[in-house]
Amino acid sequence: MRLRRVGATSHDGAAVDRQITHPDDSLADMPNLAVTTWSLEQTSPDDLLPAEAPQGDVRVVRAEVPSPEFSRFLYASVGGDILWTDRLGWPYARWQEHLERDGVETWVAYDRGTPAGYVELSPQDDGVVEIEYFGLIPAFRGRRIGGYLLAYGAARAWDLAERWPGRAPTKRVWLHTCSKDGEHAMANYQRRGFRLFDTKVEEEAVVATPGPWPGAYPA
């Protein structure tokens, strides 16, 4: 239920950044992995299909104050077991610069006050908004929070210009997902009305990740 960026180009031709820190020398001789990346889109707000709200006190709140510490916590906590490495090498200033870009938004799901996952929206030119990152901290997966959070985040992508005067109204919302995601990821996106528009297969080096913590949650 998350997406990740790989060494490719986005639908608008922009180069995708990848940075890796603290490489594990023990992985140097391991073969590359064949990773399939799927790109999906919505081209009208009418494409968005709602999701049933999860049980309990689950709320989605925008993190309006740019906070590299908080955003890096979310990034590492959600992606620690699914090879999110692109931003681990970002210095503090780069996080700050990214989060302060006009239109970049972080929407966080809270379960009884505890962060459970997040959606990061990144606007592009000509009314295009990318759902750049989406996912749940592992302990909160499998509880119907993911579908609800994705639907909520996609809705905020469609009305993003209402919160950012001067930005063009959203015409298209898109995202990446890949074969390292959970087995239900693609179905979740399609249930929310996203349609596949591109598929790529690339070789990717095996890299060390910041997690998961042994014993923190069931495998």
UniProtKB/TrEMBL annotation:
InterPro entries: Acyl_CoA_acyltransferase, GNAT_dom
Top-level lineage group: Bacteria
Official protein name in the record: GNAT family N-acetyltransferase
A Pfam cross-reference name: Acetyltransf_1
N-acetyltransferase domain segment(s): 58-219
